[in-house]
Amino acid sequence: MKHAEHRFDPPLSPGRLVKRYKRFFADVVLDDGREVVAHCANTGRMQGLLEPDSRVWVKHHDDPKRKLKWSWQIASEGDERVGINTQLPNALVAEAIALGQIPELRGYGSIRREVRYGTGSRIDLLLDDHADDPRSCYVEVKNVTLVDGSMARFPDAVTSRGLKHLGELTTMVASGSRAVMCYLIQRGDAEIFGPADAIDPAYAQGLRSAVSKGVEAIAWACEVTPQTIEVVRPVPVSLEPTA
User: Fold this and answer.
1) Strand partners, 155
2) How many angstroms separate the CA atoms of 173 and 167, rounded?
3) Which of 90, 146, 157, 230 ranks highest by number of CB atoms within 10 Å?
């Protein structure tokens, strides 16, 4: 079966991280010696990914309207490459669903993105027209970069917005729809996924409560290279509390 993937075009340029600052900026020294400022599309803490001199890959943009001509796409933790662009997961998951790659989400004839629902929110993906299930399926996608040992965790910083999404998904289930939390792990070293109790206990408890009320939780890992980010395998979800 074909896997969902994002292919970098033009190819990424390798370098070393100097520092990330003001959340949206990163100083990078490219392998050819140039020092550039790259836009960082990830506003999380990026725990474990901000070590000075760690390996990074950045993309050059020719758009004359862009203030920053470079964007940070891949970080590293040790030898592990990690996709940090939070704008990629929705498209990757939508493609994986369209390809029939995710068993729990097969069979839908309609996939719409960024549909308004709840109280001023937009659902990442809304699935409809299933041959055997008349319910709409609301899919919220979260980007995961934090791995502790072999356990991927979300979130990497307190997220009141994420907690709100869990409540809205629970409401959709109560109204007769399906609702799915899909955690896309943009790295290849995760063997299991669970909520980050130590970072955001309210979100962790919110996820457990949502699942107990019918919200489904799934996780998928990616293979990350300087050429592509590819959705490759499901990862088991554990909601057991951890320290």
Assistant:
1) none
2) 10
3) 146
The whole-angstrom separation of Cα 197 and Cα 194 is 9
CATH code at 50? 2.40.50.580
pLDDT tens-digit readout, 56-98: 999 999 999 999 999 999 999 999 999 999 999 999 999 999 9
64: in domain: yes
Contact yes or no for 56/74 (Cβ under 8 A)? yes
- Report how many domains make up the chain: 2
